Amino acid sequence: MKKYIIGNWKMNLDYAEAKSLLQEVAKAQDSFDKTAEIVVCPPLVYISVFHELLKNNEWIKLGAQNVYCENNGAFTGEVSPTQLKSMGVSYVIIGHSERRQYFGEDNKMLLAKVKAVLKQGMTPIFCCGEHLQVRKSNVFKEFVMKQIEDVLFELSADEMQKVIIAYEPIWAIGTGQTATAAQAQEIHALIRLRLEKQFGAKVSTQVPIIYGGSMKPDNAGELLGQKDIDGGLIGGASLDAESFAAISKVS
Ligand code: PEP
């Protein structure tokens, strides 16, 4: 399966900085793995300018960090799937732990968003993962499986095979503390097994399951070398073009 290297810039960088980082990434094409799918998810406010800047660029795909579940209407401050689609967006992060935690996004909302994004032919990147407390309590596997079941198991097999799952242990996000390759692989394999039971072998082998949580050039090789880790959702390290490129090349 193709490897997915997805940069989540979060709410960082002013316009000049964001534009310059995009240009650095674009210039570094030869440093990226040509076989990987490279996706950049800038703050939403820059999406239309990035769409223009990437007009002649075929290898950097545009992603959004969030979306609303309706296509238009009185939803002040929100951005719709059709609007993103019209700006050349092909990937949308849904259910990032920061959105669940700070903006109270629940499973019902996440399912509506996943469906709305799929309807526009874009790829949802559905995030799941446990807090440190849950990890320590030893029910973390059930916790993560339930996050997936409550949302993704409401989809048809046809819809499911168009989704990317990002496993992001919250204790590893932005902390510098990465899950070990074995810890990540254990959950990824379990997710794939549950997908197989629910949707069949074909879907389970087609759905990319990527890892997120302090992925950097020096730990990416081991993580991306695992059988069930199909790429990375990268926060901090994606703000540096050289590190972002290096992560794509390591495995
Ligand atoms: C993320 O925000 O999805 C993430 C994985 O961040 P970081 O790489 O900084 O831990």
UniProtKB/TrEMBL annotation:
GO terms for cellular component: cytosol. One of its GO terms (molecular function) is triose-phosphate isomerase activity. It catalyses: D-glyceraldehyde 3-phosphate = dihydroxyacetone phosphate. Involved in the gluconeogenesis. Catalyzes stereospecifically the conversion of dihydroxyacetone phosphate (DHAP) to D-glyceraldehyde-3-phosphate (G3P). It is found in: Cytoplasm. Substrate binds at residues 8-10, 174, 214, 235-236. Belongs to the triosephosphate isomerase family. The active site is at 96 (electrophile), 168 (proton acceptor). This is Triosephosphate isomerase. It comes from Putridiphycobacter roseus. Homodimer. Keywords: Cytoplasm, Gluconeogenesis, Glycolysis, Isomerase. Pathway: Carbohydrate biosynthesis; gluconeogenesis; Carbohydrate degradation; glycolysis; D-glyceraldehyde 3-phosphate from glycerone phosphate: step 1/1.
